[in-house]
Fold:
Amino acid sequence: MLVKILGSGHSGGTPMIGEGWGGANPLNPKNRRTRPSILVEDADTTILIDTSPDLRLQLINANVQHIDALLYTHSHADHLHGIDDLRAINRCMNRWIPTYANKQTWDDIAERFGYVLDPLKGDTKFFYKPCLEKNEINVGDRFKIGNFVIDVFEQDHGFLKTLGFRINEFAYSTDVVEMPESSFSTLSGIDTWIVGTLWEEPHITHAHVNKAIEWSRIVKPRRLVLSHLSHKIDYDEVSLKIASDAELAYDGMILEFPQN
Ligand SMILES: [Zn+2]
Structure:
């Protein structure tokens, strides 16, 4: 099992339009961050989580032509609006993409990108648009994709709830500011945990660096990886500060698991 971080940035990316590199050193390639998507893979199965607005280049860089399942954490633009790039995956696979999201996300997809749910017109077999096969999931659900067992847990993102995913011994928690007690029990026993942390100071909708580190003292993963990073985070500077507790993500980072 492998996890590939396709995009480690926040909604604005680094550098950010109008604000440039912020506190991040432009000479360090690990500070160039695209918007958030990740891949979870083993030899047989590939799962994509979220469709960042930078999806096309992310899928090209990771050489992805096949997705067994797409999971959505929530419908904010930085996690959803690359959806049209999935058309190329439909073409490569010549089939619809099994997609899993909660009701709120499906409602937002239907409103903003309803065409991805429409059938192909007439006798057309050619994927001239993205085609997503709708599966509605809820907090507490457990389902299987290939060898992966997926547990869905709740996260508080301030103005809305997002979904966290435990996938075997790995968990992904992006866009979360508070974690309900029940989610901590779902996380118990994981090996590696990615948590979205915007920057070092508290924020009303996102965890900050020290909050994720506090949570990890409860969950006790072997590896805590902080992602969804803003332009205020300099890779080398913050990595040094948190070295004994956590690592920072970067675009293209690959996480391996001990059983492999
Ligand atoms: Zn986000």
The helical segments are 55-61, 77-80, 86-93, 103-113, 181-187, 209-219, 235-242. The first strand starts at residue 2 and ends at 7. Residues 38 and 106 are 20 Å apart (CA to CA).
